[in-house]
Amino acid sequence: MLVGDANQRGVVQLLKTYRLVVLGATGVTGQNTFRHLAEHLPADFSWAIAGRNPDKMKKLVSDFPDRNSTPAYIPADIVDRDSVDALIKNCDVLIHLAGPYATHGELFFEKCIEHRTHYVDIGGETFFIKRMIEKYHQAASEKKVILLPTAGYESVPFDLLTLLAITHLEGAYQEHCEKIKIVTSFHRLGGVRDNRISGGSIGTMRNILAGDDCNAFNDMACLLPPKADNGRVRDRNKIRYAARYDEDVQAFTGPLQPAPFLNVPVVLRSAHLLSQAGIDYGANFSYSDSMTMEFYADSPEGQQRAAKRSARINRITSIALAGPRPLRGLIRRRLDSLGVEPGDGPSQESLPFVDYTLRLFGESDRGRSIRAQARAKGHPGYLSTSKIVAEVGLFLAEENTRPPVSFGVVTPATALGLEFLPRLERAGVKMEMCDY
To answer: Residue limits of the Saccharopine dehydrogenase NADP binding domain (predicted)?
Structure first.
């Protein structure tokens, strides 16, 4: 079982009960993660689902008869320290889907390091990730433990598509990257339409409003160590919550939803960490992303209005998070008025009827233009994320050797690398460089 490479590093490997455990399998995302694993895992793979309600877990399994593999059930309560300890000490890899994470998540980082268990979640609270980096990155790195937040739609496709372009520029042309821009488009395929936001997403936003004490919503260098040249990086990557017409895609674009503040610091952290392994993103590298609006309106006029509305909402939020606490209370009360409860979200029937595309536009330090794209099947936040995080968990459970940069509180590009692309394709996301 995976706790280190005994042959290369002299680490004694411990036999654990489960190679993989999914915590929070009965939620909106967790159910689809369970289905993907149950469909693709061999019958002899030792895995489990964990949560507070055994009846819900049993019903989840019984409602999915077309499975190759059946998991065990583990009772677990995320607010009970002994329960969390018992869960983590018995698995090689933990997929944690019971967010939001800033409230109860730190214990999982602590215990995963203690028990040498790799950890994966789909969090978006950059202020919390920053805190975990400061407190646990060094210890996890020394113990060769992978702690990987942001392992779903945000930020796996964005981080790996950027790495693909960077690697292509260096390998094919021996040039460094000056800037990367990714434009995302959501595609309706007809059928059932359901745009409801999930309780987990609302919880994440409430956590950010309550706990972001370092202005991570606006600081795109927030995940870099203090010794990095954060001032220059911050200036080059300053986020602008704006609507504009993008000539490259011939469409109106606005801030990427649902978390326009997340991918930029993750990609910048990848650039910093990978530079230590000889993968140079370029001295003046910058990254930005946005999305087109045809998902929200059919006409160009409607798309322009949708882009402006999205930009306005995010600007207001950014001002509130950078300002006095009472401003945050106004937004929290607005979120509470939506009446979204934990476990709420779009219907299962609607999720296959949304696909998405990432189009990357890059430029080298010598002026060379490159393009790449990722085409993905399924709703990004609830179906695609579920399959991606499932494949990430499997990848960490099945691979026994890692480059040194992959340990610690890391990013998709550093923990997974381009070696993960075939598994990402099994999750429904296909990446490729494009002819310019």
So the answer is: 21-147
